[in-house]
Design brief:
A hairpin with a 2-residue loop joins strand 1 and strand 2. The protein is mainly alpha-helical. The radius of gyration is 20 Å and the shape is globular. It has eight helices and two strands.
Length: about 120
């Protein structure tokens, strides 16, 4: 009986470790929110992401400000399969935080082959 209780404790401890590991792995560049969900929230930016001369809408800037709380998330969104499917031009999209006049953007951070201006 004593060995049965000991085995149960070990199994419970292993299960707890597995759950903790899964939660840590689940927290990506955008926290617990999947990158594609964040990418969809930035849909007001599509025009500005494809045309450097296009006006960046207030709705786009509001979403970018939220996303910029995690700079790695913004880069992950720009490099996501959904952004590629939407035809986003990364070289132009990476200028959106500057065009929105976001002061705390990660200037000089690399995102793919581009650098945040």
């Amino acid at each position: 009986m004593a060995s049965g209780k000991g085995s149960a404790v070990v199994i419970m401890a292993m299960m707890m470790m597995l759950c903790i590991t899964e939660q840590a792995i689940g927290a990506g560049e955008c926290g617990k929110t999947p990158v594609n969900v964040v990418a969809q929230s930035l849909s007001p930016c599509i025009g500005a992401a494809n045309n450097a001369k296009a006006k960046v809408t207030p709705a786009c800037c509001a979403q970018v400000r939220k996303t910029m709380a995690m700079p790695a998330c913004m880069c992950a969104v720009f490099l996501s399969p959904l952004a590629k499917q939407a035809g986003i031009n990364l070289g132009i999209a990476i200028t959106i935080p500057k065009r929105c006049n976001i002061k705390n953007r990660p200037v000089g951070k690399k995102c793919g082959r581009y650098v945040v201006p």
